[in-house]
Design a protein that fits this description.
By secondary structure, the protein is α/β, with parallel strands linked by helices. It has 7 helices and 19 strands.
Length: 315
């Protein structure tokens, strides 16, 4: 088999959500001719988000996939080399840095911007998959608004689940928190606030068995839940389901090469996107487990490109 010639770039961007595309726009405009490797889910989490109302600049509701398509076209228009490949290994100890794609293509780069994002953990049941974007969501800040005066359920028991449940009470008339244990893992202070909130009801020792809904138009009508102590199945009438059982950052690629926290998020210097390896930057949900918004990811993509430009100029 003939080896494919190595592709070299000054800036290699791994991943293609708002962070990756914004980094590409800034790097391309700085004449760095960046190369962006799109990864397995080009456009990232926004491609499974339907209505987007909180991205600045759009008075009307826009669609997540459309927004990502626009960012992609913009990155291309200003001179980004967009590559459809998936990076399966990197070597950050060599100079230039090296990355290998799925098909064996080798990339070398003087600097790298990591924007591989994170994935929400799902329940992995068929009916959940079916109603994703039609009443099943993993982001209350993105979708809570659509459930004004409706009944919603949140699955989870950690800080994220409690925060999502409380946030949803701004819109929903009733929020049911479903947790598989009989106590929450969330911080005590958060738990206290939750218990004091009249709109929230907690359903203990229970798991979601099935999401029930209409086919045409697609929307969620209810849930089948199972009590894991009694095995009793009951039905809940709800209009929306929010899954809040955590996120997994896509960082397995960088294990033992970059500093991460105990949950696998990349650690960057304060007020910077620089990792512990000079010339390697991390932007978006791959390093941010607090905000997780398209606009904050885009902002970090911009920072990463500017920092990479400065690094390249001084090296």
């Amino acid at each position: 088999m003939n080896e494919k010639p190595t592709k070299h770039t000054k800036v290699l961007i791994i991943g293609s959500g708002p962070a990756g595309y914004t980094a590409a726009v800034y790097a391309a405009r700085a004449m760095l001719k960046p190369m962006l490797v799109a990864g397995m889910q080009p456009g990232g989490q926004l491609t499974i988000t339907t209505d987007v109302e909180n991205y600045p600049g759009f008075a009307d509701v826009i669609q997540g996939p459309w927004l990502m398509e626009q960012m992609k076209e913009q990155a291309k228009a200003v001179g980004t080399d967009l590559v459809e490949d998936h990076i399966q290994s990197v070597n950050l100890k060599s100079k230039p840095f090296e990355a290998i794609g799925d098909g064996g293509q080798k990339y070398t780069a003087d600097s790298i911007i990591i924007s591989t994002g994170a994935q929400a953990r799902w329940l992995n049941i068929e009916s959940e998959e079916k109603f994703k974007g039609f009443g099943v969501s993993a982001c209350a800040t993105c979708d809570g608004f659509f459930f004004k005066d409706k009944t919603v359920a949140v699955v989870g028991g950690g800080n994220a689940a409690v925060e999502e449940a409380m946030f949803l009470t701004k819109f929903a008339s009733k929020v049911q928190l479903i947790h598989r244990r009989n106590e929450l893992r969330a911080e005590k202070l958060l738990q206290k606030k939750l218990m004091e909130n009249k709109k929230i009801e907690i359903i203990w020792d229970s798991v979601v068995e099935e999401v029930i809904g209409d086919e045409e138009p697609k929307n969620v009508k209810g849930l089948k839940i199972k009590n894991i102590k009694t095995n009793e199945i009951s039905e809940l009438k709800i209009d929306g389901l929010f899954i809040a059982i955590g996120h997994d950052p896509a960082t397995s690629l960088f294990k033992d090469q970059l500093e991460m926290d105990n949950t696998g998020y990349l650690i960057t210097k304060s007020d910077s996107t620089e990792t512990n390896v000079p010339g390697v930057y991390a932007a978006g949900d791959v390093k941010d487990k607090i905000f997780r918004q398209a606009v904050t990811a885009a902002g970090m993509g911009c920072m990463a490109a500017l920092e990479a430009e400065k690094y390249l100029a001084s090296n």
